[in-house]
Amino acid sequence: MSNLSLIETARDFNRFYTNFLGLLNKAYLDTPFTLTDARILFEIGSHGGISAVALARDLQLDPAYLSRILKRFRAEGLIETNRDPADLRSQVIIVTDQGRETFEELGRRSNAQIAARFDRLATGEPEAAVSAMHTIRALLDPAAKPAPAIIRAHRAGDIGWIVQSQGRFYAEEYGWDLRFEALVAEVAGKFLANFDPAKEYCWIAERGGINVGSVLVTNGGDGIAKLRLLYVDKSARGLGLGKLLVDECIHFSRQKGYRELSLWTNDMLETARAIYVKAGFRLVSEERHKMFGPEANGQNWVLDL
Amino acid sequence: MSNLSLIETARDFNRFYTNFLGLLNKAYLDTPFTLTDARILFEIGSHGGISAVALARDLQLDPAYLSRILKRFRAEGLIETNRDPADLRSQVIIVTDQGRETFEELGRRSNAQIAARFDRLATGEPEAAVSAMHTIRALLDPAAKPAPAIIRAHRAGDIGWIVQSQGRFYAEEYGWDLRFEALVAEVAGKFLANFDPAKEYCWIAERGGINVGSVLVTNGGDGIAKLRLLYVDKSARGLGLGKLLVDECIHFSRQKGYRELSLWTNDMLETARAIYVKAGFRLVSEERHKMFGPEANGQNWVLDL
DNA sequence: CGCATTTAATGGACTGAGTCAACTAATTCG
DNA sequence: CGAATTAGTTGACTCAGTCCATTAAATGCG
């Protein structure tokens, strides 16, 4: 459950942008086109040779309504439709030269409108606005293809991110109190303070510039490596990132000459446990505790390398 | 004249957001309200006692259309209208209890919808989206007054946020290495681990659901309070938040019976120094160091309480 | 293969959101 | 005071968008 004030702010923004777009779209009234007309013409103009169903699907329009609009466009000579030889029920819609002219004119007007808006801004401000638009779109547009995840070493801010994301996650999901975040901060802070690149490492999984997972290997002494703070964000579950991160740890620990890789976890973390089991870890001990408020079952797992 | 590709991107975003809002607004169809109805009800519900002209102006509606909608609302018992004693042509519109109930129900649905959208995002992503919305709005809405900042105690994730934001900021701005983030993690982690509410506190400045600043008071023993980790995010500078946070620390330290408030800072942080000077802190010592890579000038400041 | 089902496209019939013009009543301004 | 303006309302209308039924092609299944 997201913070309520975030949601309020988002609603507020939506109200604002509804108005803002409303104003922009009024401009279409200076042409004989409605907003829907313009959207359709734009869609046909960009993907040449689209079918009516596809159009209706993409723009969420009623097929009957769309059919009428296309008929009008055809009558006005803006588009041509031909039967699709591959499926004679379907038709292929293309813009005529005149249609392209109209389409481009609409584009020019729309551009001019935004340019007018941007012209009132200070140097650098349009860039800031557009960059913010990118951010929103990448986050809210499911069709904006999710960037592939990469795994890399930690850098500035990452350790803080680990503390924040896990602190928040365990609080929201399991009701753990701030003692848990304190523990994470201590573990992660010590890792950073005493970081020994020869024996230790931190992996961050990142997607489109946003951190989505992490794990540490720290030196426990006596040839024992410790896997700590494994975490994969909600948004990136099911991609096998957890397994990937654990595999990195195992590979690294072997390579650095450790004889054993151990970890501490809690039994309600079932996905994590499945990963450990599959990787060959064995459960060596278990104890109930209330370290972070609610009762939980702590477990120690070990993998012989 | 703005760069064309910026404009194209902005148009692209507008198309996307038109769709996005369209989807969200479909939900109003589950209620007997249209989007316009909902906007009107929202507007009346928020500013109690508004007049019809003001409403028509703010929402850019036809007065005739608005009049009819208000008539309907009146018939349904959602609002009451009384003549404005100051101008008998005008009327004062207020929501009835039932209207308020409806208004709040709409709000809850709208919230739930956005929450559902946000729930699919990663930790920090809703914040990123909302922060981008702020950016756009601040730039495009001439009437936008920035959301007021509030100051509150820390909760889950905040300590991690402190580590992350400062770790990243000092690395980007001054080239400090990870030893700095390690120090922050240690300080913040210890604060959380040994937190003594009777003598210590953490303040988080938040604006529209986004953390934008922080400061801690920790117990240094011997009647000395320590002000630590003062930070105000770039996006919220110039609002006096730094001063506000420091004032909180001073007030708290006095109230808890400390005799002295001390802090350590570096001299390139000029805004912070100005705040300390103004608050009455005096510089007691100074030493050059390379604790975090680049050479810097560490300073100890003290305020007698 | 043939029959039932699904899908693309369209026309008929309708609804209701939003617009425009005309009017009343109160207010302001010269 | 009278002319012009403003707040609000009603009547008459338009047209964007929806729902249902129909045709023709395609697909699925025994």
Automatic annotation (TrEMBL), chains A, B:
Answer yes or no on keyword Transferase. Answer: yes
Domain HTH marR-type positions: 1-138
Q: Which residues form the N-acetyltransferase domain?
A: 149-305
User: Which SUPFAM superfamilies does the record cross-reference, listed alphabetically?
Assistant: Acyl-CoA N-acyltransferases (Nat) (SSF55729), Winged helix' DNA-binding domain (SSF46785)
Coiled-coil stretches = none
- Which UniProt keywords are listed? Transferase
Note the InterPro entries from the entry: Acyl_CoA_acyltransferase, ArsR-like_HTH, GNAT_dom, HTH_MarR-typ, NAT_camello-type, WH-like_DNA-bd_sf, WH_DNA-bd_sf
UniProt superkingdom: Bacteria
Recorded GO terms, molecular function? DNA-binding transcription factor activity; N-acetyltransferase activity
This protein's name:
GNAT family N-acetyltransferase
What organism is listed for this UniProt entry? Rhizobium leguminosarum
In the record, what lineage is assigned to the organism producing the protein?
A: Bacteria, Pseudomonadati, Pseudomonadota, Alphaproteobacteria, Hyphomicrobiales
